[in-house]
Amino acid sequence: MSTDKLFQEGEIRSDFQFNERVAEVFDDMLARSVPNYEQVIEMTALLLERFLHPGDRIYDLGCSTGNTLLHLARRLNIPELRFTGVDNSQAMISKARLKAEMYSRQGQLDFAEGDITDFADSDSGAILLNYTLQFIRPPLRPELLTRLHAALRPGGVLILSEKVISHDPLLNRTFLELYFAFKRSKGYSEMEIAKKREALENVLIPFSIRENLELLTQAGFQRAETFCQWFNFVSLVAVKGE
By CB count within 10 A, which of 63, 90, 115, 232 is most buried? Predict the structure, then answer.
């Protein structure tokens, strides 16, 4: 796994893009930038064990290099599950396919390059949207979530993980300070933290937990709740009615 040094020498001077340079170090970037990253994947597996049916298809939209689906494919013992990852970055999809080949999972896993806002499949058992909705322009989010609700079979689940904001200024500032301390503890310098924040400023637009829950309700989900939170990072599960 290559180490994320993209912002040490100022390599990225414009808005953040999921290009080949980012794809090469993305696994390290996730591990050092997303609190509880591996724990959320394992918690997702525990939830899916309760909601999936044999033969279900699980979609990971914004799958990046395929880590989540590879873990779930190894972890879940439900018969005949099928896993599909979709990402609009060709560099990410290439790395995901290589990993599936290395772990001999090509028959169970497939990865496709595509725009997730055009997603139109149906009868899915589960859809994962981890740290992805925050990169979709806010006006497009309601329609996307409505599409995903329609794509799930009755009783299917959506897993949504996001970086979030608090509308309370004191708490929001406190959570951000704690997050920057987390990144420093993972070896990022003040310069790297500042440069990445600047690169993401016009690309990653977080909502609050309440706003995300409202979007899920408006999309048609009858049940939605948080299942993991670390200050300004949250994971939610939403269940489609039977």
Answer: 63
Identify which of 162, 158, 150, 141 has the alpha carbon closest to the alpha carbon of residue 208.
162
Query: Mean pLDDT, the chain, as a whole number?
Result: 92
- Residue 80 backbone zone (phi > 0: left; psi -120 to 50: alpha; other: beta): left
Provide mean pLDDT across the span 155-172: 98
Question: CA torsion, points 195, 198, 204, 205, in degrees to nearest 10?
Answer: 150
pLDDT tens per residue, range 88-99: 999 999 999 999
Cα 47 to the center of its chain, rounded Å: 16
> How many helices and strands, by DSSP H and E, does the chain display?
8, 7
Rounded Cα gap, residues 21 and 5, in angstroms: 10
Degrees (nearest 5) of the Cα angle 207, 211, 227?
Answer: 90
Q: For a pLDDT cut of 90, what percent of the chain falls above it?
A: 80
pTM for the model stands at: 0.93
Residue type, 128: L
